[in-house]
Design a protein that fits this description.
This is Diguanylate cyclase (GGDEF)-like protein. One of its GO terms (molecular function) is diguanylate cyclase activity. Keywords: Membrane, Nucleotidyltransferase, Signal, Transferase, Transmembrane, Transmembrane helix. By secondary structure, this protein is of the alpha+beta class. The strands form five sheets. Strands 1, 3, 4, 6, 8, 9 and 11 form a seven-stranded mixed beta sheet that branches. Strands 15-16-14-19-20-21 form a six-stranded mixed beta sheet, sandwiched between helices. Strands 2-13-7-10 form a four-stranded antiparallel beta sheet. The chain binds guanosine-5'-triphosphate (GTP).
Length: 606
């Protein structure tokens, strides 16, 4: 024992690390009493180190203190560690009897000796100039034990400064998480709720691993149990991972990313399960591994997304980066690669507050980008709708124009149709006319003559008044034709027709029966003498020669006259009588009028 070095306590020793003078041994039996441990021969020097990697058994520490001249009698030992589950402290009283002090970790905040610090023990040099103190620590995994000796005033000064910093950092985290909780309550986007839980659990996580006590968050006692640290770590991990999924995950495009992270959540859940199964060390180990998986993965993804231009991924990257540094520090610490110091035991707080700020910013950016996308989509929809409406309006206009055009065309067509119809009617009436009239003279033809004769007959019968029928044949027309040509013959026929027409009343009928044969119906009422005189006048009008195409054309005509009802009771009889009379006129020497029982002639042709 004497060979072991002692820590010389000087007036200015306050705040000095004493790890270089610490000695320890691991109680693998886990059942050693204080007296057994005190007489244990194999204490080894910590050699200035403050980390023991992968130690799961209780560790007994021994520290020899020597009081220097002018050094105060009362000091405090600050066990600035964040891993012990439990600690028992042994220091001698003035009689040299050892007094045991339990760790204050399971007591209310108010019962802690100084400002809530759970591992803070008074050391009092009574009359002694030197003393040996012992403590027993239990940890579930790595054991980290930076130990300092303090004068209370100086320690309080430092603590107040530290608490101010912690309070500020915790305040930032708490404020932002409550702020985002309100946003969640307003817009019900689970991202904000996950943010709230991630940051709040992180607050617990950081006070827990920092060596502060959970009671700093709440003045009355928390229910502490073995494995609580693992549960806090796992819970923080779960919410952090879920938040990362909601912010960076995209189940449509990068399924593997979200699925891997859900796998990490499952690992954290099983760590909590292991705690309740009493497997504290395994639970601790699992939570450390899980962090090693998802932190680099999430950082890689956010780096990739920010490379693609995502602003919120960049915010996340910047926010989570320090946490990765912090967790790397933690891994290095627990593996005994680096020693604990003020920086790496406080780093988590700063990283946490920083990520709270940046994650909140990431959420704002994401919401902003979603809003922008929504606005863009809305604008596009409006533009498209306007275009459609315009198109529809144009279509309607063109439709109206088409309808107008078509209506125009149709009315034109109708007009054309009407014209065609009119033409048809005209040509039909022309055809009809042609069917009933003679082309050369324009006089009614034989068919019409028969109709008219029937009319005259019917009327005469009804009115019981006589009418006359005259059959007319040109004399020696053949000769004219043969000597002067058909043209002259035609013209002669036309002249005869005009004269016949002129000789009669409007109600009478002149028809060309064919060749040089004409007929006249002198409708009722007409007297015998009137009929005879009309015929005589007609005959006389042909007494003088006609001038046709510089030819003196001399022609005559024979007329056979018959009366209804005297010369025929029906039409056939009447025509027969007229025919007979005509024959008589011809036979009597032509150019004369004949009727039944009488033939008169013109002197010229006799
Ligand atoms: N130019 C002309 N000649 C016609 C037309 N229709 C008939 N003819 C001719 O008229 C003549 C009629 O002759 P007929 O009635 O037989 O005898 P005609 O010469 O008049 O002698 P008569 O009747 O005995 O006095 C024929 O030579 C026919 O070719 C016609 O439309 N135009």
């Amino acid at each position: 024992d004497d060979a072991s070095p002692a820590f010389l306590v000087q007036p200015d020793s306050s705040g000095t690390y004493i790890n270089s003078k610490l000695e320890y041994f691991v109680d693998t039996s886990e059942t050693m009493t204080f007296d057994e441990a005190r007489s244990h021969a194999d204490f080894v020097s910590a050699g200035g180190r403050n980390v023991l990697a992968r130690v799961r058994h209780p560790i007994w520490f021994r520290l020899k203190l020597e009081r220097g001249a002018d050094a105060p009698a009362r000091w405090w030992l600050d066990y600035q560690i964040f891993s012990p589950v439990e600690l028992q402290f042994y220091s001698p009283d003035q009689n040299g009897q050892y007094i045991k002090q339990a760790s204050k970790k399971y007591e209310p905040f108010s019962a802690h000796p100084s400002y809530g610090r759970p591992f803070f023990y008074p050391i009092t040099f009574n009359d002694q100039q030197s003393m040996v103190i012992y403590w027993r620590s239990v940890s579930h995994s790595a054991f980290i034990f930076p130990v300092r000796i303090w004068q209370q005033e100086k320690w309080i000064d430092l603590t107040l400064t530290e608490y101010l910093l912690y309070g500020l950092l915790l305040g930032i985290m708490f404020g932002l998480s409550v702020y985002n909780l309100f946003i969640y309550l307003r817009i019900r986007d689970s991202m904000f709720l996950l943010y709230f839980f991630a940051i709040v659990s992180y607050m617990f996580y950081s006070v827990n691993i920092n060596g502060l006590d959970l009671n700093i968050l709440w003045s009355t006692s928390f229910h502490r149990f073995k494995g609580l640290s693992s549960c806090i770590t796992a819970t923080t991990g779960i919410f952090s991972v879920l938040f990362a999924i909601s912010l960076l995950g995209n189940l449509k495009r990068r399924k593997w990313f979200s699925y891997t992270l859900y796998g990490v959540v499952a690992i954290y859940l099983s760590a909590i399960g292991l705690v309740f199964a009493g497997q504290y060390s395994w639970a601790e180990l699992l939570t450390q591994w899980a962090g090693g998986v998802w932190l680099p993965l999430v950082l890689g993804m956010s780096a990739y997304l920010s490379y693609l231009g995502s602003v919120w991924a960049r915010c996340y990257l910047i926010g989570e980066g320090p946490t990765l540094v912090g967790s790397t520090l933690l891994v290095l610490l627990t593996q005994g690669v680096i020693e604990a110091d003020r920086f790496n035991t406080t780093f988590y707080f700063v990283a946490g507050a920083w990520s709270a700020i940046m994650f909140s910013q990431a959420l704002a950016e994401k919401v902003n980008s979603l809003k922008k996308a929504a606005t863009a989509a809305l604008n596009m929809a409006v533009t498209e709708k306007t275009a459609r409406l315009k198109e529809a309006a144009q279509y309607q206009i063109s439709l109206e124009e088409k309808v107008k055009q078509r209506t125009k065309e149709l009315s034109l067509e109708i007009l054309l149709h009407q014209q065609t119809l009119e033409q048809l009617r005209e040509s039909q009436s022309k055809l009809e006319e042609m069917a009933y009239s003679d082309v050369l003279t324009g006089l009614p033809n034989r068919r019409m003559f028969q109709d008219r004769l029937l009319q005259a007959y019917t009327r005469a019968q009804r009115q019981d008044s006589p009418f006359a029928l005259a059959l007319i044949d040109l004399d020696h027309f053949k000769r004219i034709n043969d000597s002067l040509g058909h043209g002259v013959g035609d013209q002669l026929l036309q002249i005869v027709a005009q004269r016949l027409n002129a000789a009669l009343r409007h109600s009478d009928t002149v028809a060309r029966l064919g060749g040089d044969e004409f007929a006249m119906i002198l409708t009722a009422p007409i007297s015998r003498d009137d009929a005879i005189s009309i015929c005589q006048r007609l005959l006389s009008s042909f007494d003088a020669p006609l001038l046709i195409e510089n030819h003196q054309v001399q022609t005559g005509m024979s007329i056979g006259l018959a009366w209804f009802p005297d010369d025929g009771r029906d039409m056939d009889e009447l025509i027969g009588s007229a025919d007979v009379a005509l024959y008589q006129a011809k036979a009597a020497g032509r150019h004369r009028l004949s009727y039944i029982g009488h033939v008169t002639g013109s002197n010229l042709h006799q």
